[in-house]
């Protein structure tokens, strides 16, 4: 820590007792290093006092700071009392006030008069109004903006007055108050102040420093470098060059220090990385190049705080870590669940009767849970998925989730205050569960926030709605972070850029060195235009860029090894463009820079098909399978042998998923079940016209019964695409019934013999000793003019029902998946021929396609060969499945049919 060492030695030379000094720093991070340096120098006296400059300004102003939620509530109370038009409710107020408050603080800190800026903004809008005919519409954007600044000229002065009456102050007001007291403070204070490592000051901070210098009660140590200080084009030295012109620095008091470290030899590497997370995967390789394996002089600087978890994942081999940056609260699971809870409450205000399952599932998944709660949640999800319940009634929610310990949080809140109390109690409850430290901190942050909001709300009379509470919580989530504790004097340091101030490292690894991250660029959240900010000397993005430039160059000026990584991929807000600071050192510095291009280092996707050998256990399962072989098993094997292995050998099944839109499979089931209900009533009868006409009238009833069979709720089909699917299903059933009606009307004799005919133990011999047994269901068996018809319903169109088997293709004819429909019908024909009740009848097999319902039954036809030839091919397919030397090999589909 070269800079801090120089300061300590300078102060010890001035006075071996440092207790009289007040050391003022940009942040508290360097204090621990100063103490270490004093210990290394065997210092045994009292320590100096340490202040941040904000703490010193607060001390001078002697005001009670107010910010965040308490400031918003107080400000809204003042706003309401003024009866301005438009008179926004609290939710609307919170949409603009936090941004305005930051602008107001800027006015108070950097301009001579906040009221002058407010008047200027109003006058500016009035001038624009003269130039444009705005008409009488108060909702015109220009008119609304004019009204806004007119209101702010009334509201902000009134707010300032009310805050002053309470002796409260915002950050900007503290600066304004301190400004008037600085001269007296500098004159009368007994302290000796040492300002260390500052770059940019607010006008009040500058006045304080210069006043103390004038009274010879202060001294300044800057950390500049000739590289960027001497060059007017270098934005990093902008503020320091200005400070050197202060009259307080003269022949008797030198400007300290301007070093010449940046030009010293450095190993600088720039990594162009394909992907954000991929940057973190390179860290272990960089660590290998660092000689000191304790990493005590190494810093990883994350310009994107969201990379912290991924960075920690790859640092498992690093013995000691010290994290000096916060992790955003908004990225944690409990935070997401809280957001979802408030969103659910808003939805319950709109929908009084039911819950949308997508509003409930994320809450149940992300909230910490006990073993008892987990059991209730699993049963609830299983029921909802099995019955495909998209909208869950309140009654059903109570039945399925009533035992959940926090079920009351999922019910519509009686009031905001009662809901806050419930959330506080819930946070206390889950802190007793076995949860990790980060989640514990996450929950504790929220418990504290809920308490603050509850306590801050109590003095105010205005109503807080649930959506307003949601905005308050979201503002809290977005601004808070979890701080980590570690050992700052040992091991690898992980930090943000601002945490590096005053510190020096031999090795610096910086991630996300992208434009928009370093510097942030023109992304200020403000209502004050750029030209007006410049006019009143308020900071703009240009000043912010200079501040970031200084932090960047100052960090690397004393460094020996610099690793700069940037994400080269464009996605979301990331442009994939490296920071202009990298381009500057590439073009302007004398250093040789090594460039590396890193492609995504993830393993390539394995494209080799899965292959599973037929072990003894698999062969045992196949022997068991031979006892119950269905046509669908064989078609499954044809489509993909691995599917057959998973379902028939491992006995696995696909998990239920909730369908918001009816799937092709369930559309087919809906038609299928409806037809089953229709013809079950007509089974065993020779059909008359009246039977079919009555069935057509009752289709709606049969469809409702089929919906019950599917375990779907009737309201699932009440609107949207599902309403259309149901209407199409009805049309298909109607077409099939009308087709049969026309047959009867034409004098044909049609008799329904069986529906969903179950068959089993129908033997099929592979050789004299080896056999399998067919089982399954035939959708419909009827008799048309004396001919037995075996009918299979299909959702898909009919394909390849003309069979052409000869000696050449006999063995492998059914080894192709596009002939699976004919394969199924051949097995059905073989089965029916072997059922005693159908012996001696002429048999026809066919498919009735729902996609072409008006065509009727399309029959299987043998152009070449016969049923015996077909069954020889089926036998060949079964023998392949049973053959121990033929493995199950995945069929990779390049496209879907």
UniProtKB/TrEMBL annotation:
Designated name of the protein: PD-(D/E)XK nuclease superfamily protein
Originating organism: Chryseobacterium arachidis
Transmembrane segments: none
InterPro entries: P-loop_NTPase, PDDEXK-like_dom_sf, PDDEXK_AddAB-type, Restrct_endonuc-II-like
Residues of the PD-(D/E)XK endonuclease-like domain: 629-888
Source taxon at top rank: Bacteria
Gene3D superfamilies the record matches: 3.90.320.10
